[in-house]
Amino acid sequence: MNGLIGLAGVLALLLGVGTAIGLMDRRGFSFRWLLIAAVLVAVNDALLTNLYGLLPDVIGGSWNWQGKILALAATLAIAACPGFGRRRSGLTLVQAPGSLKAALPVGLLYCAFFLVLALAFSGERATGEDIAFQLTMPGLEEEPFYRGVLLLALCQAFTGTKRVLGVDWSWGAVLSCLLFGLAHAFGFSKGSFSFDPLTMAMTALPAFIAVWLRLRTGSLLAPVLLHNFGNAVSLFL
Length: 237
Description:
Elements: H1 2-23, H2 31-48, H3 50-53, H4 65-79, H5 99-120, H6 128-134, H7 137-157, E1 161-164, E2 167-170, H8 171-185, E3 186-189, E4 192-195, H9 197-217, H10 221-232
Antiparallel strand pairs: 1-2, 3-4
Helix pairs in contact: 1-2, 1-8, 2-4, 2-7, 4-7, 5-9, 5-10, 7-8, 7-10, 8-9, 9-10
């Protein structure tokens, strides 16, 4: 129940803030695509939680392997739909011409950010499962969703763009970053909503870098690799 209430809060924020932004530029706003984005968030959340505990965990382990795999399978199926498309969703190894030279220093900045965090916050000794999970599932599941199908849906909802640092940013791209932060920092438990500003900053800010890489290269390859690096680097220090 707490998970459903937390999801309802995120969806209310998305639809409320999204509609308010859209009304400022009605010609470039599609409420239908905003609703599609909200449905994507709901589906992703339901699968990550194994339908809020209704599905038995047949994989087991200390980490949520089953929820991640189910959510990834749904994302890949959505990306294959005509309204999305794998290439438009970033599911391609092909990099935009000339983009790697620009992406390299940004990727190094991303790595440096997480290296500093890993050095500042040392963790416990990692198990083999910890390493295997962090080197695979976070990037493989979250990037195709947040920087793939969800980003595409939100950019369809807000078509107006402004070129910043060599890429065309829309309100949809910004909202995708904020939603990624909320997924980690916002929740509901013990009868009240909770919000951790530090967690929000440590997840939303790297999300802007990941979105820049996705928009600049046209591919999810760099975001996936860097995401898993960021999650796993602390396990090796």
